[in-house]
Amino acid sequence: MARYALEDGAAPRPEASRPARRSLDDSTAGAAGPAPRHAAIPAGLESIFVADPSDGEDAPAVGGPAAGGSADPDVEDAESAAAQAGLSTPETAAEAQPGSEERKGANWYVREAFGLLGELLVTAGAFLLLFVGWELFWTDVVADMETDQVIAQMEAAVAAGTAGSDTSEWVAVKAKKLGDAFAIIRIPRFGKNYAKPIREGTGREILRQGVGHYSSSQDPGEVGNFAVAGHRTTYGKPFNKIDKLQPGDKVIIETAETFFIYEIYDHEIVKPSQGEVIWPVPGVSDGVPTEALLTMTSCNPEYSSRERYVQHGKLVATYTNEGELPAEVLEV
Amino acid sequence: MRLSFYGLIWRILPGPKPVKALLALALLAGVVYCLFTWVFPWLEPLMPFNDVTVE
Q1: Is residue B55 part of a domain?
Q2: How many domains are there within chain B?
Q3: Could you read off the pLDDT of A104-158 as tens digits, one per residue?
Q4: Contact call for residues A203 and A276 (beta carbons, < 8 A)
Q5: Which of A1, A88, A177, A294 has the most CB atoms within 10 Å of its CB?
Q6: Which domain holds residue B36?
Q7: Which one of B32, B49, B55 has the shortest CB-CB distance to A273?
């Protein structure tokens, strides 16, 4: 761009009314031939960057790609050169054309505003991608690490014979408080080694660390409804495959003292407000329970909170917890 | 002078280019850590895709 400064300074301005345009025209015509199409700004954008209300009569001639054939080449060259000058740093442009400083200043602000907008949009895009990555990947990593560790501690407590005692990681059902891990849920259909801790309560923080027990519902094995909730996606997704459970599938709730074997008999998809699914007799207000049931809830469809996927099971067997489950129970 | 906050950060970072690049990476890591630790856990409950309980 120093070229413009030199020529502008050296050559006398032939037209007082349009000094900058004339000198640019001369320099461009001399240096680059009759029709240089610059690549810096698409033709359609020239009017955005270089149009000036005072040059209104010239702007339409270069308004679009089709205009190149019919327009006066001199006028087009002048516009091209002006656009190039507009891309230079403002200091240079101001030096070269003191008379048009105000016009270049306006161009500069428009251009820099677009640049700034671009930076903001790139930042917003990166933010959203990071959020999705955190939600769908990182929460699983963290939650799996935590739950695996808790399961290992609970199994170690059973092996050591301390499960359910005051000092153990494994809190006895009768002694549980909000957030305590008091049982392990095992579902052969979800995999031979599938095991997640069940914690008391269904608060957001609790559900980030495993499966949560609705505090208003019954305890494992009790007549009534033992109801639990778990994430379908994210945070280790303990109930990711809740829709794969079939009638007859076993769900094992292992407390410090007992294995409770439930068998799935039905599922339903309900609205989030349909709390009746976890009542002692599901769906029956003030019903008097006669059976020990299990209810699992998760969201439906995946990645949505529109509905709830609900599985109901029935207690079919109990075993004293001596560390080992009968092998036949774990068969799918 | 350009209007650019990334450019501004780059100019503010001290040292030669490799040092600037390392500092920029550290800055990025710090921002990601803050997002993962505080911003996203706060933001997530406001999003309508992760409720699993019935009322």
Answers
A1: no
A2: 1
A3: 578 888 888 999 999 999 999 999 999 999 999 999 999 999 999 999 999 999 8
A4: no
A5: A294
A6: 15-45
A7: B55
